[in-house]
Amino acid sequence: MSSYERVTAHVDNPEALREEGRRKMDWALQHMPILQSIREDFEAEKPLTGETIGMAMHVEAKTAILVETLALGGAEVAVTGCNPLSTHDDVSVALDAVDNVTSYAVRGVDDEEYYAAIESVIDHEPTITVDDGADMVFRIHQEHPELIDSIVGGAEETTTGVHRLRAMDEDGELNYPMFAVNDTPMKRLFDNVHGTGESALSAIAMTTNLSWAGKTVVVAGYGYCGKGVASKAAGQDANVVVCEVEPRKALEAHMEGYDVLPMAEAAEEGDVFITTTGNKDVITREHFEKMQDGVLLANAGHFDVEINLDDLDDLAVDRYEARDGVEAFEMADGRRLNVLAEGRLVNLAAPVGLGHPVEVMDQSFGIQAVCVREIVENGDEYEAGVHEVPDELDKEVAEIKLAAEGVEYDGLTDEQVEYMSSWQHGT
Amino acid sequence: MSSYERVTAHVDNPEALREEGRRKMDWALQHMPILQSIREDFEAEKPLTGETIGMAMHVEAKTAILVETLALGGAEVAVTGCNPLSTHDDVSVALDAVDNVTSYAVRGVDDEEYYAAIESVIDHEPTITVDDGADMVFRIHQEHPELIDSIVGGAEETTTGVHRLRAMDEDGELNYPMFAVNDTPMKRLFDNVHGTGESALSAIAMTTNLSWAGKTVVVAGYGYCGKGVASKAAGQDANVVVCEVEPRKALEAHMEGYDVLPMAEAAEEGDVFITTTGNKDVITREHFEKMQDGVLLANAGHFDVEINLDDLDDLAVDRYEARDGVEAFEMADGRRLNVLAEGRLVNLAAPVGLGHPVEVMDQSFGIQAVCVREIVENGDEYEAGVHEVPDELDKEVAEIKLAAEGVEYDGLTDEQVEYMSSWQHGT
Amino acid sequence: MSSYERVTAHVDNPEALREEGRRKMDWALQHMPILQSIREDFEAEKPLTGETIGMAMHVEAKTAILVETLALGGAEVAVTGCNPLSTHDDVSVALDAVDNVTSYAVRGVDDEEYYAAIESVIDHEPTITVDDGADMVFRIHQEHPELIDSIVGGAEETTTGVHRLRAMDEDGELNYPMFAVNDTPMKRLFDNVHGTGESALSAIAMTTNLSWAGKTVVVAGYGYCGKGVASKAAGQDANVVVCEVEPRKALEAHMEGYDVLPMAEAAEEGDVFITTTGNKDVITREHFEKMQDGVLLANAGHFDVEINLDDLDDLAVDRYEARDGVEAFEMADGRRLNVLAEGRLVNLAAPVGLGHPVEVMDQSFGIQAVCVREIVENGDEYEAGVHEVPDELDKEVAEIKLAAEGVEYDGLTDEQVEYMSSWQHGT
Amino acid sequence: MSSYERVTAHVDNPEALREEGRRKMDWALQHMPILQSIREDFEAEKPLTGETIGMAMHVEAKTAILVETLALGGAEVAVTGCNPLSTHDDVSVALDAVDNVTSYAVRGVDDEEYYAAIESVIDHEPTITVDDGADMVFRIHQEHPELIDSIVGGAEETTTGVHRLRAMDEDGELNYPMFAVNDTPMKRLFDNVHGTGESALSAIAMTTNLSWAGKTVVVAGYGYCGKGVASKAAGQDANVVVCEVEPRKALEAHMEGYDVLPMAEAAEEGDVFITTTGNKDVITREHFEKMQDGVLLANAGHFDVEINLDDLDDLAVDRYEARDGVEAFEMADGRRLNVLAEGRLVNLAAPVGLGHPVEVMDQSFGIQAVCVREIVENGDEYEAGVHEVPDELDKEVAEIKLAAEGVEYDGLTDEQVEYMSSWQHGT
Fold it and tell me: Which residue range or ranges hold the S-adenosyl-L-homocysteine hydrolase NAD binding domain (chains A, B, C, D) (predicted)?
């Protein structure tokens, strides 16, 4: 059924691309202490020997280090993209040159080619799947159910993918165990607070050449992303206003010294608006009508529905590119409201956007790697369906990172363990 | 069996005491916006009419406002202390003068009198109990099981009390429903992070007349209390070092920019050590041996076992009161290690210690008040045993506080509720 | 003319007092690394041999360490108080027992006794004077001009004293050189930013039992004191509002993320008001009229004129002590405005106030000590009049503190010195 | 002598360029509230009528707004670049199209053309000069002394230019008054603390795709730039280490809670090194030898001499571009030290570098504009030579910015002015 050829068949001058891709991978690896440590162990112990891993993920430098790590662990790995526009061809070629790795990812393919590449991965008859958006696991269930018996398990990276898998699971149609890597405490904390917090702010600064000091920054949503954005913006001397709908989160923000306002009031005061709610219509017509000339509107939440661009377009008498990555909407009264990155995730979609910092993906991919190892070692202990990542694996990755960074910490004595246990569970 | 007389029988010049107690209560009330709001509602609606509430709590100004609030809600309230040394006689007398309140609490009573006072409360035949340490509920189960049938439920304030109740519950010996007020998200966050964080630091500063700027402050434990202490100390320009045993918490502290060290290394660097672990033997002989001359040792955790004073005494060639609330332990080599408040909770036990700030107790007692109302309104829906405070009550208290502080925040539109719901629960 | 006897003649049980005073001094010394280091040098080198030092300062533990340091440096020291109410008799007695020190300071003396004690100090025929408020230097000029010829110089601790000396100087009536210790960069920075910042906040917290988290704190004045108070309050999770009259300072506060408002608007928003301007009538009738019920009013500036208490009294229908150190002014509409420490310096005048932290005074008294040494060594190079503390002495104290704290830092190579010099002064 | 033609003669398709340049200028103007306000006044009052202004500055969007403002004030303006590589041709063409402005700046010209363009500006016979590096004022003195009589004065933007002018002044060879715009408190504070602080960090993050959270960031130098970098890095949850040579600055950093270390020790601990000293050889061979694999080395000081690249090259066995803007130096033991932007100013020289944020230049150019107005109005009151910007002008720009941002602040009453004055100057 599939005859899609590995990436090298699709690109010119693969050797030059390979070198460039390798250089990018080397940079990433240099700053991924967790995967550095895991690959050393994997290389020494080959825990994945005999497994075939089918992957559909964004093929760029950071992910490539995960792919290479799995191959070094003894697995045969076949990989393709999970989005036709996110592949870096140079990295794809460099990956394909790694022993035991075949890459089918090519940038800019059409729908047919995209699925042909997935089919080519499936042709390898994976025993484990690793997804970013659940395309691979979905395709296998739909088109290749005969393979499921030999699949031990898989892992899914994203909220969206986990959402899709849970829906399958609820319908009784997910037929092997999948780890929801997205939901671990480690990932949520570091990815959201630090990753989104930092990268949203630097993407906005670099897209606009504007400063944070003295700006009123309105942060919509005070979940993990919102807390990160608020704290990092305050750390750059911005005056932060928080908008929330949940009273305890609103109170938490208030007790941490932030101004808490409804968006209808914040709209009049803000210089920069950053949405992080995961909901739609967070900023709408009634808010646009009150905003000052020159405000920036950016989304660091999830989809491009948080800022209602239809409302904004309705109000605008003119819209034009004010700067790369910035579209100005001019109101009848002359005010200009500037939307960054079309209201899509600003740290990814802005022209200067690099996505999450390397270290944040190291954390997340470290969990992926130990999950794959867990599937190999104990996969038969997990029933078909979506599984939380076991606490011990999340903790192990924290331990690896601390060791890699040379951070030492205390252990408990037996007496202390007993004391805590007697205390918690009754005498 | 009990013939213990109300507090006025035990004190001289009750009228002068009453005025002084009332002044203290008025100060507290002025800064308890949640209870202010609840008492207005209670006064208007009298939701507790017909109930008798038996309470054993620290009888001081803040608690007194809770007692008064319950009485204003229509209940008859009988109260005594939960610790012979924590009663303020002036407040006890002022409480006793409140309509529908009888107070038996007297400072400095002996064991016999202490229990006689509890018995006197029980003589009122409470339909609801409110405890700080579970003494009341325990006594009723042990000595007055015949009353249990008419008791609708109760609430317990502290970790220790909840621990005791869970043990009873596990043995099948807790015969009416009890709310574990201690464990709500609101209480944990505000009480531990803000309450302990702030009051531990100001108690240390005022006990020692020393400054935080430029000091190396070692915080043992990075739970809610530890986070509060670390953040507030950094906010006073201290250089904070964190000691932890759980790798994810250690990593969290590291990622927030703190130095993370084992105590054996931190011992050499610290100027001030603050324990917040809830465990024992956090600072022991091997650490004392390495500390610098003049260090401060304080506990903001729970019991006085975190700093091992036996080890310290063994090492000391001399010990003397260096200052009110500070005991110096002099080592053979001349170094002086200064223990604050005998290693007991420094924000309570230091001579200047005032316990938690008024606003923190307002939060906690606000939850108590709505729990009591819940018991009256829906008590029959709860089985005997320990219950978490329902999320909705915790949330209601947050709403009351935001309203009282004049903080407005957003609501969700129907479309937004639907969007989130479709997203979270599958399409 | 003077026959005032040393302190021991005025107190009961001097030996018990001496022990108590010594204990206080030992605590201070333990936390004064700068004076520890200077006294070691002074003891070894006796640079003050042959001098007689006459001092009028607050006789409490921290100052006592300075007095003792000067005596250890070889000087004969005679000391008395600079305010009849600030003397600690126990410290005064302990000081008097130090070799080469005579103390005349007694708490609670009347005017006549106060000046008699100063005269007794002058009877020692000082060759150097050290003042806190210029009483000693003023008395000598007025009553004992014959002594001036043998006086090499002096040092003055406070703003007020320096102000008085400059007035004398301008009138050509200051007849020996005086160092204005108050004005050094080191003193201003550490004393004002850290000392006032920290101690004002902890004094307010401990006087009121209230919390900072989530409070709106209005800081009037954004000089060094105001910056310290603002930064430390924000560090305790308060929401800080700054009021200023100088546009560049107002802009500085704005650019650092604070809300900047005129007092007329801040009055409506604040929960706590802290004045640090050094000016009068910063908070007046028009502001009191707008404030919320329960606000706190405190002064961390200089005199008790920043908050206009006459205006407040005019508006009040009742005033009463709401708590030790807190006077409530009740308005006709029931609002209560709470003034701390009678509007005097809250970190000193509040009942719990301990003044500046020990380390801050160590810095300040370290400069005093090297100034006295400078007078001995190079006094003849200074003309009569007020002198800034030479930059090198200020720097020396910084070096001593860094060495005492074990903080190492870099030096410049010869090439670097040359590079900077060529750059700054032209090629 | 000069026959260099205005910019349009040198570029293709000037109309398309003009539109693009105008778009860039509009973006800048939208975020320059100070110049917005000044140009309104200038347009209304035409204070510069009759003057001819000769300028040599970086011709990019932000500067262009200053040029346009001066033209709107009634002056005829001739402008060229101050560096052949910093001109944006689109902006130059857009400027040239502004009424009363002639632009000669073209990117990438050779030396001869560069000076011919300056000559063309001089051909306009300026009565006022505005420089960035003093090229214009220097050329006039050297080649066209006959023009000096009709020149009223000038302004210089940079440290380097002021340095050059002071050297001329000391030699008695600066023959008209020049304002040293670089040195005002406003510029130093906002430009260095906020401008350099923010832009250095975001340039580093965007060049490397790395994160700040949990990183050890070594800041060399604790002047205004160093303070800005340290504070903003801590605000992104980095662990900051400060290196200093001046003991009082070292102590200031220590008292603010930073680790202070000599570079020889910091070298072992740092993940990122940022130099801000203005000196040379801040990081040298002995430091490189101790650094960890993967460290980042960046300069936010002045020249590219702070990090000794010769030493680094000597030690390296290989050097290669690891990433755009990052050169890796590989040591014999395999460690890779990554130098950003060739050790030149990272916020300018990195490929993603945008220089200072718009608002920072608004501040600086606002001072330029009021200085030019001052020259016109009161130029004859200034003698030939370098002049500090009068305090009142610096203050005026702060007032304009506060008004533009809608920030209100207090004024002093007459009584307050009198009180302060009596206090400061003696009664």
Answer: 192-353
